[in-house]
Structure formats: C-alpha cells, structure tokens
Design a protein that fits this description.
Layout lengths: L30 E5 L14 H6 L8 H8 L3 E6 L33 H9 L4 E6 L5 H7 L2 E4 L19 E6 L2 H11 L11 E3 L2 H4 L4 H15 L4 E2 L12 H24 L5 H11 L3 H21 L3 E6 L13 H17 L3 E9 L2 E8 L5 H8 L4
Amino acid sequence: MTELPIPGPYVPWVNEIPPRPETGGPLQGVRLAVKDLFDVAGLPTGAGNPTWLATHPPATRDAAAVAVLTGAGARIVGKTHTDEMAYSLFGTNAHYGAPDNPAAPGHITGGSSNGTAAAVAEGSADLGLGTDTGGSVRIPAGWCGLYGLRPSHSRVSRAGVVPLCGSFDVPGLLTRDLVLLRTATGVLLTGGPDTTPIRGLVAPADLWELAEPAVRQALQPALERLAATLPCDEKPLWGSAPAPDYRFAYAVRTGWEFWRRHGEWVRQHDPVFGPGVGERVRVAAERTHPELIAADREITAVRTAMAQLLDGAVLVIPTAPAPAPARGADTGPLRAPILGLTGISSVVGLPALSVPGAAVDGLPVGLCLVGAPGADESLLDLAEVLR
C-alpha cells in the first residue's frame, strides 16, 4: 500500500465553518475541535470513510453535545480526522492517513479521536470533542500529554453522533489544562453527580502489570502522590477467581451493535475499509446470538465487581500499556493490553479521566482515574493533586 501523506488534524472537506451568533457563556472564546463523527449543522459528517461521506447529506442540525458546547460560547474551528467509523484504537486511517503527534513527533496520536487530540496538542484548539468507546479519548490523551475525560455513560447525550456501539459510546473531552476541562465538563454533563466521598484508591497489581515496566516506573511517583492523600490498595483486582473476559465481551457486543446499525449500509454500498477495520467489520457480520448472551454474562460480572470495588474508591491504572508507537510500527500486540486497561470503564459505563502523568524517553504517558457512575466531578477533584 502506498504510504499516505501526513494530514493535519482537520478534515479537508470542511473549509469554512458556518457563522454562528455570539451566545456568551462560560466557554466564550474557547476554540472547539469537533471529531468528524458529530453532526454540525450545514456540514458533512464523514465518519472516517469516503463512502460514508459520499452517501450522506450534510447535517441539518447539530449533535446534542455540539449544541451544548457552542451554546455555552465555544467556537468551532474545524472538524477533525477519525478512524473509520471509530472502529479502531490507533488513529491510523487507511484513506486519509494519520496526523502526527505534536507531543511526540514521528509517533501516532492513537485513538479514533486522533485528529481532535492532535488539534488540542498542537494548540490550534483549546477544547476537543471526541468519542470514547474502547479508549478513543483516553488513549490519545495519554499519548499526547493531555487531559481526557470519558464521562459516565448516562450523563451525555449521543444524539447526532455516528454510532459504533451505543452501549459503550460516549462523547468525551480533551484539553491541555484541568481548569478548562472542569468548566467544559460542567457544561456538557447532565444529571446530578455522585457525591459519595472518595475514601480510598485501588491500584491493582494485575492491571498495572499490563503496562510495560518503563511505564509503571514512570507513573509510580504520580501514584505515590495520590497515595499520600488516600489509602491505596494494590492487591490484584480479580484475586484467585477467574477474571471476567471483558475484552471478549467488548468485541462481541461492539460487533453485534455495529452490524445491526450499519450492516444494511455496508451491504448496499460495499465500502472499502482499511485492513484492520475491514476484518472487524467482517467478524461483526458473523456474530451470533449465543455469543452475545455469553458476552453480556461477562459484562454483568464486571459490573457487579465494579459496583463493590468503587463504592467510595477510585481505580488508578496506567492509561495505556506503552507510549505512543512510532509511525508505521506494528500496533497489533498493543490491542489486547490496551483493552485490558480501558475495557472495564467501557463495558460498565464508568467515568475515566486520563491525566498527564510522566514521560518515557521523552514520550508522554498518562495515569487514568476511574470512578463509580456519576463520580466525574470527584475524578476532577482528585486530579488536582497531580497538577
């Protein structure tokens, strides 16, 4: 395959943002980069695939999350590149290429919110609106040295967003600083927060062992700073009991929902997908109902365990198992350990905040704080310890 040129963060088919009236509000003057899965009135939504772009008319209204943020004063500066249908974790689009990582030149940004992260990291946007299904806000946040929030699943509307898996998809935010993230979170989230006091931390050894030794070592000082404020339990998450296979469950339910939502479009238009995405789409078409039942059984087990674990506690884990890979590197071996770290939040719908934690050989790595449903604000409070 011919190597594609390195694109900037923004999609080239959106040259001008339709003017909007000034609204005032807490985000007045904030430059907003919008992942090209979100509808923006008057603009096409490309979803990372040329056939999708060609077969869908421009949006007639804003996605709910876009409307909320712009209604609070944010100004859209562009729509940003994404993986095809958000069906990947690495930000390497076979049609459009992959934006470079401003925080680690020569390396990928990661996540299907790759363009959004690149825009915020390079400074052309202050606030990024992405989506997180299996880690696509958290991973680029960690690899680009940003703050990245995957909110509680129930607290943000997904209306007007091209879905990957509605059971796991959630709009999320990327920023360079915690103050702006706190302000934007207050605008975007609905429903009351969980006010259960945070009484402790859990940093399970078995989850930390999914990360490379250099990552664990680099993040240890940040963990110690948190542990100086709250007791920290590092015993293995699953102990001697068999761990629920949440990676299998994530793959099955994601494929099942993708095909039921987009299968007819695939059959009708026969879009060309890149190699990794194409294989996942092929497998999605073959998912069976017994597989779904088995997957949901695993998801229930994880939800039960997390409800007990996160009652007044925060899970603290590496955001990703390794720093951002170099452009063109084989990312296949990273997929399983990434989902081992990100998948728990995804299948349970938990809020997860990636905080800039450290660097390995000059490459950013993030620390992720995971809370009970509704504990988004508590995670932001806890992150203040690491500023």
